[in-house]
Design brief:
5-stranded mixed beta barrel, alpha+beta
């Protein structure tokens, strides 16, 4: 018999004389004549109640069905006599596939998020994390759906690279050299990187953007979606050493088109989650963030505010608020500044654009007509309440000499980027793109406050378990 998922059984429109369910035991309680077992297979937040008559030949198996055990149930889907559920299954066959002893850590009680991170191999079986990872799966699908419907081409950017897209140097080195006794150059003073696997220094990628630009300059509209890495010693609720990024790149597009695409994309993902993950979002609003659904509705209904960096600094300076990090033109906006703008001043998602050139990456397009000392680039950050920055992007510098100027400003050698410069020599076009941190988007959609709890296995400083 073909297996039925619990979510499909719960949504059945008619009883069934024969059904097969397989999953894990959430709870078990017994009366004189019956046992009641809640079976969950991860397909939905709710489980299915299994009623096992004490006269059933398989009834002795029930005693082995402790919380966490895997079971297989043949039975009849019937209207439930209990409150709060439409259907239940009366077992005609009951089998324990894999036992779980009393040391099973997910008993029916509250567990801290810190404890659940220590058992990341089991936490997807909990209500909270089952819901988180169902939403993650759905939104990953929605990412592809959004871009494919808009005629974007999916590009697989490399994981190993010799280029630092951000120019910040916070990259994980990839090497096959014997670190205890590495080969040296002829003078004996330096490691001979030419003897390494790729013949040069190589790293885990921080972004697929530069490679996406190559394809945008051939296929027009492209996007990447894959893991990225930052060797940044940040122990915050918003940072991880390994995370997933979505990076569209669009030819013949300026900063304004870029901001419009970012807003459309965020709203699409929220709308998709509300349509396809309604039960899980209800769970989050009840147990994680009571304002979640209202906030998501608000974001969908209201146009995002657009505010220049200079205007944002003026707002922060006039706020009368004491910030931990000083506010000054030329300094980067910190999370507390971003949250003030979105949560207290504008009270909605806000796109800040035209940042100082000195604090942004070398590839961002220099704005024309800037006052001396106030040079800016066509950069944009989309800030959302509760999180801060969720998207960062820019119009890219398409002018060869201006790009070389930007590289010099950031003390970057041109040689490793020869191919990137070539894009400006051969049919250069205005183009723009952005990066959306997938985990931060999940934090916003679920209300979960720590990035470690929206990724299956968190990679943070000092932590690479599982």
């Amino acid at each position: 018999m073909q297996r039925t998922l619990v979510k499909d059984a719960l949504n059945a429109t008619a009883p069934s004389d024969a059904i097969l369910l397989q999953g894990w035991v959430r709870t078990r309680r017994e009366s004189k004549a019956f046992s009641f077992v809640e079976l969950n297979d991860g397909s939905s937040l709710k489980g299915m109640q299994i009623v096992v008559d004490a006269t059933l030949p398989d009834y002795p198996q029930v005693a082995r069905a402790n919380t966490g055990a895997s079971i297989e149930v043949h039975g009849k889907l019937v209207e439930s006599k209990g409150a709060g559920q439409k259907w239940e299954v009366v077992a005609t066959g009951f089998k324990v596939l894999g036992e779980a002893d009393n040391s099973y850590p997910l008993q029916k009680k509250g567990h801290t998020l810190e404890f659940l991170r220590e058992i990341a191999h089991l936490r997807p079986r909990s209500n909270l994390f089952g819901a988180v990872f169902r939403v993650r799966s759905r939104l990953a699908y929605a990412v592809h759906q959004f871009f494919q419907n808009k005629d974007f081409h999916y590009v697989h950017a490399p994981i190993i690279t010799a280029s630092d897209a951000e120019g910040a140097g916070e990259m994980f080195r990839v090497t096959t050299l014997d670190l205890a006794n590495p080969p040296k150059t002829e003078d004996g003073k330096h490691v001979d990187d030419a003897k390494d696997f790729f013949g040069k220094k190589s790293f885990l990628t921080v972004s697929g953007q530069l490679e996406a630009e190559i394809f945008a300059c051939a296929l027009s509209n492209v996007y990447t979606f894959g893991p990225t890495f930052r060797a940044e010693n940040s122990n915050t609720s918003r940072h991880a050493a390994e995370f997933w990024m979505i990076e569209p790149e669009v030819a013949f597009c300026d900063i304004h088109g870029n901001m419009a695409l970012a807003e459309e994309f965020v709203k699409y993902l929220i709308r998709d989650a509300k349509e396809h993950c309604a039960a899980d979002l209800e769970f989050f609003s009840k147990f994680v963030d009571k304002d979640l659904l209202a906030r998501l509705d608000f974001v969908l209904e209201k146009p995002f505010v657009r505010c220049s960096y200079t205007e944002a600094i003026e707002i922060l300076e006039k706020s009368g608020k004491q910030f931990e990090h000083p506010v000054a033109w030329g300094a980067n906006l910190q999370a507390e500044h971003e949250r003030y703008l979105t949560e207290e001043h504008f009270k909605c998602p806000t796109t800040v654009y035209n940042y100082p050139r000195a604090i942004k990456a070398f590839y961002m397009r220099a704005n024309d007509g800037c006052a001396p000392g106030r040079e800016t680039v066509a950069a944009m950050d989309l800030l959302v309440p509760g999180i801060g920055e969720i998207i960062g992007g820019s119009q890219r510098e398409e002018r060869l000499e201006k790009l070389r100027e930007g590289m010099a400003l950031h003390h970057l050698e041109e040689k490793p980027y020869w191919w990137y410069l070539d894009l400006r020599r051969y049919g250069s076009v205005p183009h723009s793109g952005f990066g959306l941190g997938f985990e931060r988007m999940l934090m916003f959609v679920t209300g979960v406050g720590n990035i470690r709890d929206v990724i299956p296995f968190a990679r943070t400083p000092g932590t690479a378990d599982f």
